[in-house]
Amino acid sequence: MGIFSIFSKKTKEQEKETLDQGLTKTKETFFSKLSKSILGKTTIDDEVLDSLEETLVTSDVGVETTLKIIANIQERVKRDKYLGTSQLNNILKEEISALLKQTNNQFPEDFDSPMPKKPYVILVVGVNGVGKTTTIGKLAYQYKMAGKKVMLGASDTFRAAAVEQLQIWADRVEVPIVQQGMNADPASVAYDTLQSALAKDIDVVIIDTAGRLHNKIGLMNELTKIKKVMQKLVPDAPHEVLLVLDASTGQNAIEQARQFTAATEVNALALTKLDGTAKGGVIIGISDQFKIPVRYIGLGEQMTDLQRFHAEDFVDSLFK
Questions:
Q1: Burial class (CB in 10 A: 0-12, 13-18, 19+), 60
Q2: Nearest to 281 by CA among 250, 243, 317, 319
Q3: Which of 217, 235, 298, 308 could form a disulfide with 272 if both were Cys (CB 3.0 to 4.6 A apart)?
Q4: What is the C-alpha separation between 73 and 70, in angstroms, rounded?
Q5: Is there a contact between 177 and 149 (Cβ–Cβ < 8 Å)?
Q6: β-bridge pairing 177-178 and 204-208
Q7: Which backbone phi and psi does 123 adopt, to 5 degrees?
């Protein structure tokens, strides 16, 4: 029995509790600033909106998204007249919910949902240090716990440590891995991974890629090559191009999203380290600016602390 075999899946109630706890720092900081901005005010006027704008920007929601929220609230104030500051929380909750509700029916709803394709291929991208390898390990664990057969592919061959770390996670989770060591051709590793996955009737394939951005053209060419060779075996692969971002870096995460979406066709996001930061508002800005759904959020060190992102649960926890 492996080290993680004794763990069971979290119930929905336990996941919600983890989410509530994980957003504590973001919530405390945001609402502390918000309370100060409306202190002594009874109606939502220009001064309150200016203070709210500053609160949202300094909470890492981002300037572009903040201006959109403020404009929408201004429109509501103009339409409904004399809205009180006591209603501001509900108005904000509605506006943020609207920005986060992006659906993409090509993705499985949850880890235990039926997979739309077999093998279902997830290509993981992101800079080093954001928790990419850990996210891959936790994804593998969650899908395995949901009864799926999972395989990893070590296509980050730029660093020897990357291959070694992925091997450690594969051993921990007890899933097969395809790797050829450092300096191997990343596309060749991806091809071999899919070939093995098809032969072994694997449900979910998760492929790591090099975590660097110093040469965007080189990154673009590398990822394009990986996709092309995978499509020789699975014509519509990859089904998810998952960009992993560190939520604790705030605006830097938004800049990384900008760089990676320019380099490749990212269609899903994972935000890590939400539990240790007051910058959880970055999720709102990233979702709005890039129109890419957040698929997963990391809320702790445990294998079960990687959750599927559900906008409604996130907003409920934020405004709880």
A1: buried
A2: 250
A3: 298
A4: 5
A5: no
A6: unpaired
A7: -100, 120
Tokens 């501001």 belong to which residue?
88
pLDDT digits (tens, 9 = 90+) for 89-122: 888 999 999 888 765 557 888 899 999 999 999 9
Residue 37 CA to residue 46 CA, distance in Å, equals 12
Structure token digits, residue 271? 């935000």
Token pair, residue 192, equals 């071999």
Give dist(CA 154, CA 207) in Å, integer: 6
Side-chain half-sphere exposure of 318, counting CA atoms within 13 A: 25
Residue 84: Cβ within 10 Å count? 11
| Measured distance between the N- and C-terminal CA atoms of the chain, rounded to whole angstroms | 40
CB 312 within 8 A of CB 97: yes
Q: What is the pLDDT of residues 231-260, one digit of tens each?
A: 999 999 999 999 999 998 988 899 889 888
Measured CA to CA, the distance from residue 317 to residue 252 in angstroms comes to 24
Here the tokens at position 246 are: 């560190």
- Name the pTM for this structure: 0.90
Question: What are the residues whose beta carbons fall under 8 Å from the beta carbon of 209, sequence distance 6 or more?
Answer: 123, 124, 125, 155, 156, 186, 222, 223, 226
User: Rounded to an integer, what distance in angstroms lies between the CA atom of residue 205 and that of residue 176?
Assistant: 10
Hey, what are 312's tokens? 């409604």
Contact criterion met (CB below 8 Å) for 315 and 66: no
Residue with tokens 């899919």: 194
Cis peptide leading into 119, omega within 30 of 0? yes
Q: Check: CB of residue 317 under 8 Å from CB of residue 155.
A: no
Among residues 279, 201, 238, 40, the alpha carbon closest in space to that of 125 is found at 238
Residue 223 burial (CB count, 10 A): 24
Residue 101's contacts (CB-CB under 8 Å, 6 or more residues apart) are: 311, 312
